[in-house]
Specification:
This protein is mainly beta. The chain has two helices and 32 strands. The N and C termini lie far apart (about 50 Å). Its EC number is 4.2.2.2.
């Protein structure tokens, strides 16, 4: 275990001398005051001055005192609670943080590297099984690179992840847990993460690989203790203020046309993902009335709209009035709660690069009609489209990948409705849940045709629930076509 850091007053002196013209003095002070820190440190945060460097994505995060100020995630029922910092362009680096598991339950708590989306990252986590696991995470697909036992996960431990090229290595308290090859994107931000757990985090630092001392400890994991009067890690330096850099999309947009095939085989949408013409941060919800053509601008949350997790109650990037049309828009990450439709609305060629809470939520009355025509969505940890109001939603000529559910009729809203969804000419890739979910007891219907499922040989196309208005989890009562509530036949679905 490294020696304790110097007093916070000394560390603040390093921060105060962090101007470019004083680089030599800073380097000297770091060498004297923090012997194990690298002069090339890219980022560090001890949370003494708040958590303004971090973007929240789910969970209940707050600053608390545990000898010093720490960042705490307290919501144990949150499936994925994360905060992100740094640059999306970061590639080869070492990130470490102090982690203290308060309640692991059946979950985990740890540190992430190369987070290229809200649910795509490498992470090293303390788990409820008493282990530290190095994992590659892509949506709900989790690959364990390696693991090692950890004594007393409820104590403070230093977790470090090195990412260099395709090699990913994890350490706990200086001891190597595992190392292996990874196939996720080669750049991304850092993160602090929990899943169905509560934990505290402190003393985060990021260093370019090769700049700091090499680690060559055996694969064991001794318990770390956090002094009550000092910060737990020995590698603190000046705090940086990173700004997330948005990256452009892939290929340019072609004109969207429906492709109704007369045969049973679905006609797959052939439109490529568009390339963003400009990046536009959104700090407050944008109201839309009439018709708005975004010209393939990429909009992404910033400040209060900086979340891309599954927390309920987030604000949307766009709020559409009754009858509004929004077209040719890209929603980047973080996407917060995407788009809200207050009444009838139309979304044409709208693209979600990484779905936040939901891609879109439909809230109109019993006679409302909503249309999603063209576009696509990626990376939805849970739902893509949430139907809370009444009326009929039509989703056509759409492509979706790496998601939990394409559509869900709200199963436990305080005000319930009879709802209908029509899904037509949709290509589904890498689904991890089901296609649509409806409430049979409220008379919901799902009419489904020309769906192509790529990468799976089977999928629950239409799942029926008994909904409620009490907020309780709805009960699943069946799945599959029945001609009344789930209206489709086997010939309407093609598996590839």
């Amino acid at each position: 275990m490294p020696s304790a850091t110097p007093s916070r007053r000394r560390r603040r002196l390093v921060v105060g001398l962090g101007a470019a013209g004083a680089a030599g003095a800073v380097t000297a002070l770091v060498a004297i005051l923090v012997p194990s820190a690298s002069a090339g440190t890219q980022f560090s945060d001890d949370f003494e001055n708040g958590a303004g460097n971090w973007t929240k994505s789910g969970g209940d995060w707050s600053l608390v005192s545990d000898g010093s100020k720490v960042y705490k995630q307290a919501k144990t029922e949150s499936e994925l609670a994360r905060v992100f910092a740094g640059e999306t362009s970061w590639t080869n680096y070492s990130v470490e943080a102090k982690v203290k598991a308060l309640d692991l339950g059946s979950g985990l708590a740890g540190v992430a590297a190369r987070a290229s989306g809200s649910s795509t990252m490498y992470r090293l986590a303390l788990t409820s099984a008493g282990k530290a696991e190095l994992q590659a995470v892509k949506g709900s697909a989790i690959t364990t690179i390696g693991s090692a036992p950890v004594s007393n996960p409820a104590a403070w431990h230093t977790l470090k992840v090195d990412v260099s090229g395709s090699t990913i290595t994890g350490y706990v308290d200086g001891a190597k847990v595992a190392s292996g090859a990874g196939a996720l994107p080669g750049t991304g931000r850092i993160g602090l993460v929990t899943s169905y757990a509560a934990a505290e985090f402190d003393d985060v630092s990021v260093n370019p690989l090769g700049a700091g001392p090499a680690t060559s400890a055996p694969a064991a994991t001794p318990t770390a203790t956090k002094p009550a009067t000092a910060s737990p890690t020995a590698t603190k330096t000046a705090t940086a203020s990173p700004t997330a850099t948005k990256t452009a999309g892939a290929t340019p947009t072609a004109t969207k046309t429906a492709a109704p095939a007369p045969t049973a085989a679905p006609a797959a949408p052939s439109v490529a993902w568009p390339k963003a013409t400009v990046d536009k941060p959104v700090t407050a919800t944008i109201p839309v009335s009439g018709t708005v053509d975004g010209g393939n601008a990429r909009y992404f949350g910033s400040g209060a709209l900086g979340g891309d997790g599954q927390d309920e109650g987030q604000d949307p990037l766009f709020k559409l009035a009754d009858g509004a049309v929004l077209k040719n828009v890209i929603l980047g990450a973080p996407a917060a709660d995407g788009i809200h439709c207050s009444g009838s609305c139309t979304l044409i060629n709208v693209w979600w690069e990484n779905v936040g809470e939901d891609a879109a939520t439909f809230k109109g009355g019993a006679s409302a009609t909503y249309t999603v025509d063209g576009g696509g969505a990626k990376g939805a940890d849970d739902k893509v489209f949430q139907h809370n109001g009444g009326g009929t939603l039509t989703i056509k000529n759409f492509q979706v990948s790496d998601f939990g559910k394409l559509y869900r009729s709200c199963g436990n809203c305080s005000t319930q409705h009879k709802r209908a969804v029509v899904v037509q000419n949709v290509v589904v890739t890498a689904p991890v849940g089901s296609l649509v979910g409806i409430n049979q007891n409220f008379g919901d219907t799902a009419t489904i045709s020309k769906v192509t499922v790529v990468g799976k040989k089977s999928l629950d196309i239409c799942v029926k629930f008994t909904g409620n208005n009490t907020g309780k989890e709805p009960t699943k009562i069946g799945a599959g076509p029945d001609g009344t509530f789930c209206k489709y036949t086997e010939s309407d679905i093609t598996f590839k």
